[in-house]
Amino acid sequence: MYWLHQSALYLHIVVGVIALIMFWIPVVSKKGARNHKRFGRIFAIVMYTVGWSGVLMASFDLWRPLVTHPVAQSTTAEAQTAISAGIRASATFLLSLSILVLATTRHGWLVIRHKDDRRALRRPAHVALCLALLGAGLTLLVIGGSSGNILMLIFGALETWLAIGFLRYSFKAELAHPREWWVEHLGSLIGSGIGVYTAFFVFGAARLLQPLLESGSFAGLGVVFWVAPGAIGGIAIARLSRKYRRRFSAEPG
């Protein structure tokens, strides 16, 4: 199990770095053009790899935390319990981010492929993934509320909001305007970026910048890095969605 966990970790790191760069190519490329479609497909494959490798790592950490993260034999039972609790807390958040990446990537891909025909979004696999995102969000809200963890509260609210939005879009009787699928695709893309950039800051950059963030001048700034992708991304989704809904609603037919 340890080596399988480590293999998933290395894969997650490699594809995660690729995803950080790949995210911007569909964003800046001309919408609907060949490069946008080509790199969009590649981005989806990369994000699925990021998501599933994260699910695998988090599942192992939740199941056997001291197997995936061995400690010295001299470690006391009390210390082992505390270490296990810390690993499981991080794994819970990583699992929620992984589900966020998978759900937003799949939703955005299905929306753009099927546009006005939303039957594919109502199939059991996609509905189950959206419900998993909803469950992850509610779990983070409960944990964040009981522990006062701002990071979990923000992402619990974001994941819950996105999951409800995905399900509502999939099952509502009629689209509000002919190109509502475009707005939905945009929001899903930003949501996937939130997941991958938050994972980078929380599990990657935070460790690299730890000496700086623990210094007197920058102490406490770590939480800013952690919540920034979710806060900025959530605001961007809300504002851009409102902007384009108004624009498309004003267009004829």
TrEMBL record:
Membrane spanning residue stretches: 6-27, 39-63, 83-104, 125-144, 150-169, 181-206, 218-238
Entry keyword annotation includes Kinase: no
Keywords: Membrane, Transmembrane, Transmembrane helix
Record's keyword annotation contains Transmembrane helix: yes
Name of the protein in question: DUF2306 domain-containing protein
Species the sequence originates in: marine sediment metagenome
